[in-house]
Amino acid sequence: MLNTVVLGIGFLCLGYIDKTARLKAQAAATAAVAAKPPVPPQPQPAPKTIVVYKTNQFKWSQLETPDYRQYIANLRAIGCPELTIRDLIMTDVMRLYAQRRGQYYQNGRQFKFWETDDKRKLKAKQLEEREIQLAQIDKELPGVLRELLGVNYERELNKYFVDSNEDARRLAFLSDDKREQTIEIREQWEAKRDQLLEQARNGPLSAADIAQLRQFEQERDKALSGILTAEEMNLYDLSTSETANRLRDELIGFNPTEKEFREIYAKQKALDEKYAFQNMDDEAVRQAKAAEEQAMTEDLKKTLGEGRAADLQQSKNPEYRELVSLSEQYDLPTDTSQNLIEMRQIAQDQIQRLVQDNTIPLDRRQQALKEIQTETERSFQKTLGSAAYSAYVQGAGSWIRSVGGSAGAPASSVNSVAPATQTVTPSQPASDTETE
Question: What per-residue confidence (pLDDT) applies to 28?
Answer without folding.
Answer: 52
